[in-house]
Amino acid sequence: MASSRRTRTSTAEPLTARVLIVDDDERNAFAASEALEVLGHELVVARSGEEALRLLLAQEFAVILLDLHMPGMDGYETARLIREHPRTRDTPIVFVTAVFRDEAHIFQAYSVGAVDVVFKPVDPFILRSKVAILADLHLKTIEVRRQGEERSALLEENARISEEKLAAELALRTARERQDAILKSLPVVFTARASAHPFGARFVSDSITPLTGFEPNRFVDEPEIGLGRIHPDDVEGVVNCLMKAAETGAYACEYRWMCADGDYRTFLDQGVWIVDEDGESQILGTLLDVTERRHLEEQLTQARKMEAVGQLTGGVAHDFNNLLTVVLGNADILLRRIEDQPNVVKHLAAIRAAADKGQTLTRQLLAFSRRQQLNPSVVDLNTLIRNFLPLMKQAVGEGVAIELELGAEPLHAFVDPTHLETALLNLAVNARDAMDSDGVLMISARRAAGDDGAGCASIRVSDTGSGMSAEVADRVFEPFYTTKDIGRGSGLGLSQVYGFVAQSGGAVEVSSTPGEGAVFTLTLPLTADLPAEVAAPGEAVEAETGSERVLIVEDDPAVLSVCLDMLNGLGYQCEVAADAAGALHRLGGDQAYDLLFSDVVMPGGLNGIELARRAQAMRPGLRVLLTSGYLGDAVQGLSHEFALIEKPYERAALATQIRRVLAETPTAAPPRAAMEASSH
Questions:
Q1: Is the pTM of this model over 0.90?
Q2: What is the DSSP pairing of strand 188-194 with strand 201-204?
Q3: Nearest 5 degrees, angle CA 267-CA 270-CA 273?
């Protein structure tokens, strides 16, 4: 246990240092302490090298008196460790020894960092002298360090004050310059005008020029210019507003004003009616250009309208696709059963074709609202456009010539190829209608630089049609908006293009002039990944069958009936449940199941995703296939967790997807999921 002693030689507290005495012999330590006590320094005693090292890490010492011969860690090892640590490498070490007196040991002592060696029995006077010199040197070093720090602090403070003074002077000068610049460059115009019609200007600030293109003196010299260039529809309201200022003491009005370039800008004009000391009245006000703000507000209103349509679409998509699943499923079942009755087959084919159109309509709405389920993959845009050319030619007819401008450089994008083809087809059909089935359709693809420096591709679709006005171009992507005759279009084709491109992380723009055709530009981000090799398409094959046991979970009785009929016809052993609770009850029984086929959106507070997680926690080997007519925002990233097939699905597609899921290696549910499932 270390001990310390301090002596005082006067009433005033002197500047003292710490002296560390390291000796395993209590008598030697006491003798050294007695000899050094008169110096007035703080004396700290350590009984071993280990204890000395601990003290040196916690406190600063002026000198270390270190015994060479100690049990355990001797003085040489202790000194070596002291010198290795950055905190203590410069602390003076005086070795004290009664045993090692030969030159070899003394040389070794100096080699490990000692500044001096004294021999026992130690002469108190010599010991005090050596320690006093080293302690005074330490204290003077501290004092010099302190004075240096104080001097640095004073210099820093002086520099700070000088900088603050200079900064204050610069800030004052800058403030004056800024004030002058603000008055000249502010979009706010300060005005003073007469209080009688036509309210001619008496003063207009210089900031009127960048707003209107007219110099300030023009307004003073021509009193009629203020009211004379207001939009005709707004003049009466402005005059009434200014006239009422005499009664209310203030006014505020907004109007369109024709600038020097012939374009109208929207101004917010507000101010007060004052009467000076001579009894003469005038109007003091400010003029603010709010054109961009109004434009942004209109865009926000439009975006909200679009979002409302999207939410409505998402709300009806699930139920509508359930209905289409029933129609398409039953049509397919009946078509297989009555192939020998041509008249009935004809009617069923018409029903199925109408249902297919309904499916396309729903997907277009979901595409516009950016709520569709995409299956993106890496594709070469040049190859996709080139391979899709025959179908586009068939869609536009012989009167429209399609020309391609595709580079040799591959353009790899991560998009849903089917939806991209649909977007190109919609643009082609729209161009055909604009050209009245006679003209040239140009499709080009090239690499372009994105705003953030990332690579992106630009697909440009232009036509030689009638073009469109700016008002039509502003609304062309709105759902159900069309300039075509009734029955020639749903108004959803360009909406689908807009929604798909936006959902794919890109953008679509249109530029058009009446009589000069239109240009649609699709911008899609590129990727460094390479496309996967796709097998050449072959002939259609019969739906794959199976004999596994499947648990079907569907709350819609009609959809459940169709699904059950399909799977039974494919050879599967099926059981059904109307909701998640019923499914969990069956899974908790003794019956084994190979596949859980469940709808995602179900009543009862537990959707298909949560059901699938609990089901796999209960039965780790269970495969899962989910289905839904609309997934919504709550299940983003679902494809990474469970397989999914969208409604309405066809028998062959369902059969293929089931076989794919059953062929996958089952994964055990994580322990946490199992615990959560068991708790329910």
A1: no
A2: antiparallel
A3: 145
